[in-house]
Amino acid sequence: MVKIAPSILSADFSKLGEEVLDVEKGGADYIHVDVMDGHFVPNITIGSLVVDAIRPVTKLPLDVHLMIENPDQYIPSFAKAGADIISVHVEATPHLHRSIQLIRELGVKPGVVINPATPVSTIQHVIEDVELVLLMTVNPGFGGQAFIPSVLPKITEVRSLVNQTGKTIDVEVDGGINPDTAKQVVEAGANVLVAGSAIYNSRNRQNAIDMIKGSL
Ligand SMILES: O=C(CO)[C@H](O)[C@H](O)COP(=O)(O)O
After folding, report:
1. Per-residue pLDDT tens for 66-81?
2. What is the DSSP string of 167-216?
3. How far, in Å, CA of 118 to CA of 158, rounded?
4. Site residues for ligand 1, CB cut-off 6 Å
């Protein structure tokens, strides 16, 4: 089954609790939280305080995507705040395996992320250690960007790597996902779709989620 993970990056932050509940009621499977530090990516967004604030609002898993340098310093605070999944970028941590181990030791599901320009071979050595692989389908930093179609063969490559393990590991995509692009990424092998603007820019979030699901 394909899962939908609305990114709260495109939500109205003045009423974030309601915005989270709205997509939960609308059929979301995960809540995707985009953490940016202004160094690894050219934007600053959410800290662990926000994860702590939305934790009691929803029963859905909080899928925390760290787009930050030196992630090991901040992983414990996101785990304490109630993250269910924490994903780190291969490009942002010098000791990827150590970061993944740290996440697992804290009782959280570890994920690994690669940018559009990063080859799949960079995550081959940790594939058995993660619960989720996130492929960026835009260059990270902002919502509302156009989907990069050259990532499609990499999604298929990751799916085949995951299948070789025999384990249940999510293949998630993030960036420019909407009813026009969702079918392509699912056919390529993705099973978790992050969507920010396609869901939160719509007045009726249930309808927006149904439109993505209905396009598959
Ligand atoms: O990680 C992100 C940006 O770095 C966002 O999750 C992503 O861009 C989703 O937004 P949209 O669906 O509007 O493209």
Report:
1. 999 999 999 999 999 9
2. S--EEEEESS-STTTHHHHHHHT--EEEESHHHHTSS-HHHHHHHHHHT-
3. 12
4. 7, 9-10, 32, 34, 65, 138, 140-145, 174-177, 194-198
Please tell me the residue having the least CA distance from ligand 1 atom 5: 143
Tell whether 27 is in a known binding site.
Answer: no
Which has the closest alpha carbon to 13: 50, 62, 67?
50
Single pTM value for the model? 0.98
Q: How far, in Å, from the CA of 196 to the mean position of ligand 1? A: 6
Provide the number of structural domains found in the chain: 1
Contact indicator for 174, 6 with CB cutoff of 8 Å: no
**Amino acid present at 207:** N
CATH classification of the domain holding 57: 3.20.20.70
Tell me the residue range of the domain where 110 lies: 3-214
Q: Residue 150's pLDDT is what?
A: 98
Q: What is the position in ligand 1's atom list of the atom closest to the CA of 140?
A: 4
80-137 confidence digits (pLDDT tens): 999 999 999 999 999 999 999 999 999 999 999 999 999 999 999 999 999 999 999 9
pLDDT of residue 133: 99
Cα–ligand 1 centroid distance for 201 (angstroms): 12
- Rounded to 5 degrees, what are φ and ψ at 113? -120, 140
> So which residues are the catalytic ones?
34, 174
Is 174 flagged in the annotation as binding?
A: yes
pLDDT at 39: 98
Q: Confirm or deny that 89 is annotated as ligand binding.
A: no
pLDDT of residue 138: 98
